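Board notes (copied after class):
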Amino acid sequence: MKKIFYLLVLLFSLSSYSQEIALLKYNGGGDWYANPTSLPNLIKYCNSNINTQIKLKPATVEPSSPELFLYPLVHMTGHGNVVFNENEVSNLSNYLSAGGFLHIDDNYGMDQYVRKEIKKIFPNNDLVEIPANHLIFQKPNFFPNGLPKIHEHDGKRPQAFGIFLEGKLVLLYTYECDLGDGWEDAEVNNDPKEVREKALKMGANIVNYIFNN
């Protein structure tokens, strides 16, 4: 019964006139607050380019909060340690099973920590690499090679991993890419305009996927 209620809340959030997205405030010591200008810039870009009506200021939500279910998209980033306790794991699992979406963007240094926490949420599901022909790379912007490379990091190719429930992507983990840095104000990382545009277009694809699937 509780899951049905949460599903109805999420459906209302998706269909309401003005949507809202949130940043996940997690425990463990990692800098969950990294890239403070990234989500506001992505929201502005989406509202201008793909006709969304997202509130300009993103919310902040904790993994254990009932308010998690108010947001169709929750974004998570940082450079360091991540720890989800038992209540947070349960709440995140219910949220994602009810139709929520979590985007985790490794800002460089969280990979070894966050993979273990994802496994807590979905012990019976493995992270799988998302192929370049997946819908998230097709609309509204076409990325024929999949996830774009925004920052160098360790020089590895960018990879998008996902957790699928009943064929639907509910958790996206972007690695060796750093979309969030590309969304930040231009002077923060001094990324060229074309690199920032590429990051914002991929972000718009993520938002479009969530709101239309």
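Comment from the instructor: The longest strand covers residues 168-175. DSSP finds seven helices and seven strands in the chain.
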